């Protein structure tokens, strides 16, 4: 599967029903722990569309079919995240972070997450030539996620406590990094 097999479409409100459906899937809900009412989806994803939130959200499409979701943001736009991360790892100026999931259960466990991440790293390089690195914290029990990062070329640079998205987790995270250029 080639990295060029993926399209990244900026989310619109027309994508909200798809996001709602995926966020309710048990494999996504376990780690995203997201409220899914219409108002919650609007609150949490509308800002990216309107430009009031400094992240970029994308519907991931492969072969003309929606596959998943990925978002990116400059860590500097979220100083509280930088403060939490720098307690465990170096965060170079110009660093990005990403969040992602494969939506439909039929697509998990096939290497699509790794391929999607690789393709999105290429997009980040093209869209943000000044970005230095991508740093991604992943809660330790989410083995599929941190393994996908490793297979996509990220290296684990640290571990430690970060507030968990899901209160059933103890906050233990692995922190992975991929350098986009020399820092």
From TrEMBL:
InterPro entries in the cross-refs: Acyl_CoA_acyltransferase (IPR016181), GNAT_dom (IPR000182)
Single GO MF descriptor: N-acyltransferase activity
GO BP of this protein: response to antibiotic
Keywords on record: Antibiotic resistance, Transferase
SUPFAM superfamilies reported in the protein's UniProt record: Acyl-CoA N-acyltransferases (Nat)
Pfam families: Acetyltransf_8 (PF13523)
Residue ranges of every copy of the N-acetyltransferase domain listed in the record: 6-181
Name of the protein this chain belongs to: GNAT family N-acetyltransferase
Organism: Rhodococcus oxybenzonivorans
